[in-house]
Structure formats: structure tokens, C-alpha cells
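YM 10:42: Holliday junction branch migration complex subunit RuvA sequence, as discussed on the call
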Amino acid sequence: MIAFVRGEVAEVGLTSAVVEVGGVGLEVMCTPGTLATLRPGRSATLPTSMVVREDSLTLFGFLDADEKTTFELVQTASGVGPKLAQAMLAVLSPDDLRAAVASEDVKTLTRVPGIGQKGAQRIILELRDRIGAPVGSARPAGAPAPAADWRTQVQQGLVGLGWSAKEADKAVDAVADQAGPAPDVGSLLRSALQTLSRA
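YM 10:58: structure's back
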């Protein structure tokens, strides 16, 4: 299995990045928060998890080892596949996820697109003895995005997670006042997702 990739970022897309490793471009599926930290032409190191299916090999990339471990652990809950695990990490940091499971906070888990009331209860039941307590490490903040760029990145992230372009645009407008001079795309994406879950 491929534990991590290190190389020059060749391309950053809506849901993935291409990292050049030894002359080969590896496509790595990432959350919008992770993608916001990557810049084409710059070197990057991403811990990775490979998901093998009959018809595909998919590489998922993360900001750090904690995200990777959490991604792999949540998939041990029934009904949680790699896409849903990635959506969970797009909305919640590993610590937020551990806190939600430990405190049996169904409401927080249902903020993730694709997780309903019953799904959240099942995840809590199956993971609470294994996921551990919050460790107090905040997710590393993404590199500040230029003022105009954050809107595009958040909108594309929401569309990539299954919301319509119209819904995504409304959510971006709703969180615009939180952007400030140095927007943190990961935080703004989480706020936009909270706005959508309340709607």
C-alpha cells in the first residue's frame, strides 16, 4: 500500500490533486480543506490511504496522520465507505469527530451530508469504544486564500460533497461576512455546511 506521497503538485482540482512522484502523476482525492493548502508548482507531502475495489484503485490524501487514521477508522462502522468518511472529515476535524462520538452528539454528526439520524446513532454505537477521546490537536489551518479565491473553493467543495450549485452559492453568501482579510477555506467550508444543514 502507498503510505504517503511526496512531490510537486502538478494540478489542484475540485475534489482531487495530482502530485508528481518520480515522473508519474498520482491523483489523490482530498477534502476541500486539504486542497486549500496545496499550490501547483510547490512541493507537498500527503499521508495517503489506498482504497482497492474490483474496478478501481483510489488514493485518498490527508493533511496529517491523524486525519488518515480517523478516515480509516470510521470506515469500520457499517454503512461508512470512503466517500462518506471523506465527507465526515470535510465537515469535522478528527477531534470534533471524536468529541461528537464520545458525547453521543447525533446533531453534530448529521451535519455531514449523507448521515441521517439512524446512521449517526449507528456510528456512535460502533465507534465509541474505539475512536478514543479528543486529543486537543486542532486541524492545521490552510494557507490563507486570496479574497476572491475562497468563494470558488468553498462553492466547489460544497458541489463536490453533493450540494447543488444554487445551494452552494447561497451558503457561500451566508458565510461571506466571516471571511475577513485572510480567509481560512476549511473553516468557511465548515460554516457553509452548517448553514446548509440548518436550511
